[in-house]
């Protein structure tokens, strides 16, 4: 009798362990977070990214949620601190941040971006030298093509300006439109989209060499299997009706003239960004 009771208890324990294991295996995978570099207002950023992330989450079987702090430096600080699983940023290519181990896996398709100094169409300013002593808008001191690259051009030209930091790309463009500054340091693609959407006439005063568009990157804690799944799902969005609808909705939010799409990217493709930062670090006092 006692032997039968003991076997029954063992059987119940076995069933309990089996049920627990089955429950754990059937539990939904935890969601992922994507930290997005501040280029536009939170509302526009959400309108662009949320259709993409909802469809991406549906494909990989786990939610992917948008995250963005109040300003670009704050978002970058959170990214560096590892608060996000994924990041849409080109702020992780400095020598000290490369060591963090973030991995590039995709980027938006299309032409490269450049840094620009832009002025209003009717501005009398015709050269960089005329910016000396003037108020010039920038997204933030963290911005790459919107600050680091154009400021290096000013350094080489021996021109000092009064920086006005707006917090994001379109904030700097808004300062220019309001004539609070005489020029702005911008990302060429963000500037063109803003001008088309807002009906702003502007002129390019200076343009940098090209750099690949901002990449999507994964934190080291994201497994290789998850990263491969994410990349495959993201690159496949333009291959079926549901994915194309998400991409079209994202483009419509910014009033772009055609849908966006993603292509594979690697760390090696961003070597000129890392080289820029290495050279800048070597020149620093």
TrEMBL record:
<keyword id="KW-0732">Signal</keyword>
<dbReference type="Pfam" id="PF12974">
    <property type="entry name" value="Phosphonate-bd"/>
</dbReference>
<protein>
    <submittedName>
        <fullName>Phosphonate transport system substrate-binding protein</fullName>
    </submittedName>
</protein>
<feature type="signal peptide">
    <location>
        <begin position="1"/>
        <end position="23"/>
    </location>
</feature>
């Amino acid at each position: 009798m006692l032997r039968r009771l003991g076997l029954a208890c063992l059987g119940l324990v076995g069933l309990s362990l089996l049920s627990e294991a089955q429950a754990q295996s059937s539990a939904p995978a935890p969601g992922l977070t994507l930290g997005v570099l501040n280029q536009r207002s939170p509302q526009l950023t959400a309108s662009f990214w949320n259709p993409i992330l909802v469809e991406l989450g549906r494909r990989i079987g786990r939610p992917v949620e948008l995250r963005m702090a109040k300003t670009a430096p704050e978002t970058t600080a959170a990214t560096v601190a590892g608060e996000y699983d994924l990041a849409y940023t080109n702020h992780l290519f400095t020598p000290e941040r490369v060591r963090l181990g973030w991995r590039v896996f995709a980027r938006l398709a299309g032409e490269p971006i450049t840094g620009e100094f832009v002025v209003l169409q009717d501005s009398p300013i015709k050269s960089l030298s005329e910016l000396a002593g003037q108020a010039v808008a920038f997204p933030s001191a963290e911005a790459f093509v919107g600050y680091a690259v154009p400021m290096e051009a000013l350094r080489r030209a021996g021109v000092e300006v009064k920086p006005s930091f707006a917090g994001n790309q379109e904030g700097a463009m808004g300062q220019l439109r309001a004539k609070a500054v005489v020029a702005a340091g911008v990302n060429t693609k963000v500037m063109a989209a803003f001008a088309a959407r807002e009906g702003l006439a502007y002129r390019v005063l200076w343009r940098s060499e090209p750099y690949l568009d901002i990449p999507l990157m994964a934190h080291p804690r994201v497994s290789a299997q998850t990263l491969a799944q994410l990349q495959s799902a993201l690159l496949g969005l333009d291959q079926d009706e549901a994915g194309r609808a998400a991409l079209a909705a994202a483009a419509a939010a910014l009033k772009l003239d055609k849908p966006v799409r993603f292509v594979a990217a690697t760390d090696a493709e961003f070597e000129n960004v890392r080289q820029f930062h290495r050279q800048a670090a070597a020149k620093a006092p």
